[in-house]
């Protein structure tokens, strides 16, 4: 794990936004993180391919510092196909085929705000505006969906959600599916807006995802609280 050496971690080793470092420092010294580091090291030593690359484990946090968080979109674990995962929930690298769930997210975005679907699945434009695209589990083995569940990441991302819940600014939590809703069940709804629906997966999207208008509802809440809305329109060129 990036920033964890010889079974321990120091905050000087961890390449992470200073704001997140301050909020999450206690987590890096806990036993579960040491055990998680050992597990990931054993995976690599066994020749297994782990996605995303180590530099991208904390990419969502790197791109969205705590003082900039305006929206949280909670996913489950990274895509497990070659070249897909890069540390942001629901997002894939430029040039990679858009996954089915993201196709449906784009369809709902078009129905909600009239924004035509992007030709790519690279969501860093959202992250840089304050949309924390956080997976519950931050790594996965190639070709093995959910292979790293129950290894410790969930405890770490629980701490991230608790930290966001305690931030001074009101935040929108977009929770698609029962897994995300259970994980963030403790969020303070008297301060934050929680938007819930079924998951955008093709297996469930037609049973309560389409028509829920999460993007306009998020922006309406942010504006009502005196914050700028999110520009949900993705650039045509993902490198921009």
From TrEMBL:
SMART domains reported in the protein's UniProt record: UDG, UreE_C
Catalytic activity, reaction form: Hydrolyzes single-stranded DNA or mismatched double-stranded DNA and polynucleotides, releasing free uracil
InterPro entries: UDG_fam1 (IPR002043), Ura-DNA_Glyclase_AS (IPR018085), Uracil-DNA_glycosylase-like (IPR005122), Uracil-DNA_glycosylase-like_sf (IPR036895)
Active-site residues, record numbering mapped to chain: 77 (proton acceptor)
Subcellular location field: Cytoplasm
Gene Ontology annotations for the cellular component aspect, listed alphabetically: cytoplasm
Any one GO BP annotation for this protein: base-excision repair, AP site formation via deaminated base removal
Enzyme superclass (EC): hydrolase
Its biological purpose: Excises uracil residues from the DNA which can arise as a result of misincorporation of dUMP residues by DNA polymerase or due to deamination of cytosine.
Similarity remark: Belongs to the uracil-DNA glycosylase (UDG) superfamily. UNG family.
Name of the protein described by the UniProt record: Uracil-DNA glycosylase
Organism per entry: Asticcacaulis benevestitus DSM 16100 = ATCC BAA-896
Gene coding for it: ung
